[in-house]
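Weekly puzzle thread! Below is a chain. First person to post its structure in token form gets bragging rights.
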Amino acid sequence: MMDWLIPDWPAPAGVKACVTTRAGGVSLAPFDSLNLGDHVDDNPVAVAENRRRLTEHFAIQPAWLQQVHGVVVAHADPAVVATADASWTATPGIACTAMTADCLPVLFCDRAGTRVAAAHAGWRGLAAGVLEATLDSLAVEPTQVLAWLGPAIGPKAFEVGPEVRDVFIAQLPQASEAFVPSHNAGKFMADIYRLARLRLAACGVTAVYGGGLCTVTDPRFFSYRRAPRTGRFASLIWLER
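Winning reply:
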């Protein structure tokens, strides 16, 4: 049986969103079972069936992306697999989609319920400005934007080197509060949720919800750090028809 999370945030009534879990698909281990990634060496027939089940259940048209840890934001188009790490739409029934397995998925909507977007933010994309680029694509005032942070690697599992910390602090000094020394000398534990909130706040977006789930420790989700050969789950947002 398919299982998913519904974001708990004050989005307008016509804005719908969900996050899939590992449950409800046909893929075999180690991609069991609702793997939606077609780039992880899973059986393409199984991936196609998993995507069909998702599409049929919610009566949506997901706009899948070829994600590359960049900052390109595509206009969501179910007929085109764009090379991008975020997408936006104002068309009902088309779902902006971000696939992850530790990276941070961020869903956006405007308070009027006329535009939605989804971004895939690993630390490289986050540092490069994928969230800022996604905000720009919505073309509304930041005070009119709501954001929701989906399941990602948690602060107790995300160990990084000093070069990662340096990149964020050079851009935003307050980012120092998102890093604490690791028990491994010279390393730091990074809070990707905190980093996202700080960057969104710097843009004027303060209505930020979600966060707190850790893909590494929560077996409901695929996690690349837990098992490098694994699948991908999806965070989707769309306007109701």
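Puzzle host: Confirmed. Bonus trivia for everyone else. The first helix runs from residue 44 to 58.
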